[in-house]
Amino acid sequence: MRIYKGIHSLIGNTPLFEITKIPLPNKVRLFAKLEYFNPGGSVKDRLGQELLQDAINNGHISRKGTLIEPTAGNTGIGLALAAVGTDVTVIFVVPEKFSQEKQMLMRSLGAKVVNTRTEDGMLGAIAKTKDLLKEIPDSYSPSQFSNPANPDTYYKTLGPELVQELEGKIDVFVAGAGTGGTFMGTARYLKDTLASVKTSIVEPEGSILNGGDPGPHRTEGIGMEFLPPYMDTSYFDTIHTISDKEAFKYVLQLTKLEGLLVGSSSGAAFAAALKEAETAKPGSHIVTVFADSSERYLSAGIYEGAE
Ligand code: PMP
């Protein structure tokens, strides 16, 4: 039996879960990394840890400095968790529309939250962050939307975990993209390591990857308004654009049939994985990422109106 000391030792090495109750075509085996088993409840705990270390080790702030980051929530929770037990102050700039639960968790972990207008999107939050950086001394923004440490986190952690757990037998990797760090880092690791693997990126309607205009969507945590510099579109073997309706339908199915309490980005990832399963060779191994939990979205009505 292992005794864990320090919350940071619980980040990563999340369970890999095989879908067995929801019927799958082509005798496909579908696996999901249950990232909501991380101690802050999402895939972004991995990133928070890395960004804090990166900021201190590279001298961007002192050990008593301030990190300021525009975030839809989960990266904030990951960063706030990483800062627990340190003297670093964290401030998050969050568009109002994002889940109240996430904002409450960030505050409870000791962070300050500054809200920006929903209509201004993530670009509005990024602009506000720039203003705060000028006002506050010894401050730095890890800038998850441009920092190569973002994809590198997943190249170093999630990618190797998947290859080890599935003994390299991965035919298709499917993941949603918000900043794109999870997809890009993992996809790059898999293509560098395995002889042949298809990497499939997932977005909600209202995201730009399939050539659409940016617009509102209810699926939280994924969707791109612009392409961050570390994204390499040659890794987009397929792009799946999933409607909110479909994402929420699968959230309910995953909950009722598999007992998986997942958030809407996981519903979208699963919808895309099923589309891959329909065209996959019989017996293929498809792996995806369930980034966070439905408990984070109860007041936003994640289980309402989806039946
Ligand atoms: N799902 C959820 C719920 C998230 O919060 C995020 C992070 N924005 C993602 C998926 C996508 O992760 P990434 O930013 O690495 O693309």
Automatic annotation (TrEMBL):
InterPro entries: Cys_Synth/Cystath_Beta-Synth, P-phosphate_BS, TrpB-like_PALP. Residues 9-292 form the Tryptophan synthase beta chain-like PALP domain. Its cofactor is pyridoxal 5'-phosphate. CDD domains: CBS_like (cd01561). This is Cysteine synthase family protein.
